[in-house]
Structure formats: structure tokens, C-alpha cells
Predict the structure.
Amino acid sequence: MNASQDHVVAVVLAGGQGRRMGFVDKPLMPLGDQTLLDHVISRLAPQCSAIALNANGNPDRFQSFQLPVIADSVDDHPGPLAGILAGLDWAALHQPQATHVISVPGDAPFIPRDLVAKLTQALGEGAELARAHSFGRRHPVVGLWPVSIRADLRDQLVNHDIRKIDLFTADYSMAEVEFEGVPDPFFNVNTPEDRTEAERILRG
């Protein structure tokens, strides 16, 4: 099924443990006069019809964003695939118009403003899934997922212990969509040094 932007909702994967940042909620860290998550949301919101945040633990820490906070439904924190599944389940239950979910990390403040448009266009060329690629690197967590695959994803997570995105997507036709820009549009803030660099980019 092809996707249109009107039928795409987003899940922001905001539940990482932030090990290299001293086990903090990275999306809530300041960047400029906002948080990392504010920057992600401001770029993503015009591109889709609704946004949810995927995070475990106390959802009240995201209360100021006034967005649904959905926890993993699979035990033992199996990683981003569980967050993607949570987004697909949320879309199926609460966003009946949605045919697809776009997933993005909560620590990538410069995501492209045409991310959804380019990924949906790639699906129109016959692929089942689409993901972002930049500067010789693929970005598995930045992808467009049909809601219809949620039962298969749950089965692979629960019954086959599939944890890596690339292992799950190997059974589907995948469009790799190239993005360019300076900085890299999928620059992740993983370390204090990355945050310093992001501040420099933001000022520039």
C-alpha cells in the first residue's frame, strides 16, 4: 500500500538510556533555548498528521509536550523495534486514518523537513518499507512502516527474539532514500561532545 503524508503519523523514539551522556533523558537535554525533543518535534510536526512519544518509565516527564506517551509492550527493553511496534499499535488503535508510521530518534535535532515526503515517494515506486540514508550510512531507526506489519513485528520480537532492525527488515523490500546536507541531517547527540557540536551548528 502506498502512503500519503495525510496518512502518516509519527513515533519519536525518546526512551533510550543515554549511557554515553551519563544515563540521562537525552531528548530532554537543552539545545539552544529549547530541548533536543523540541527541535525534533518542530521539524516533524508539519510532515505528519499526529505524533506520539515512545518512552518507558514515568510519562509525566514529557507532560509539557502535550503528546501521547506510549511505552513498549514487549518486556526486557528489546530496543528500537519495540518502540516502532508501540507506534504501530498506537496508530492502529487511535489513528484509524493512518496507513504508515514514520519513526525518528529523539536525539536528532536536524532531521530533514522533507523526510516524510521523500520516504512516501519511495514507497510509491514499489517498496514495502523505506529508510533514510546519508553520507554512506543507513539509518535503520529513521523509517516508514506500514501499520499492517505490526502482527509480524510482534511475532518476530516475542517468538523469535529478533532485536536488530536489519534482521527484521530483511524479509521486506526496502527503499534506501538518500538525504544530503550540512550538517548531516541525521546527526545524533550521543555524547557531551556531540551536544557541543550541535550547539555550534545551531548558532551557525
User: Anything to note?
Assistant: Residues 18-22 have pLDDT under 50 and may be disordered. The longest strand covers residues 137-146. Strands lie at 8-13, 30-31, 34-35, 51-54, 69-70, 100-105, 129-134, 137-146, 174-178.
